[in-house]
Amino acid sequence: MELSKPVKAVKKPIPVTAQQVTKRTVVQTIEGPLTAQPGDWIITGVEGEQWPVKREIFEKTYTIKD
To answer: Which domain of life does the UniProt lineage start with (predicted)?
Structure first.
């Protein structure tokens, strides 16, 4: 494998919709079904794709906008 010189990059902020789960829920993702537990979040991306995010990870990586 041949690689170019490394560069610094920052991921673009892309708005998503998030809903917190109140009961165990199975989410159909592009990689197959995944389970979200109460307190986790289900994220819906710009193309309608969904994925669950653990509460701890959501709090570290997302900011809720009004």
So the answer is: Bacteria
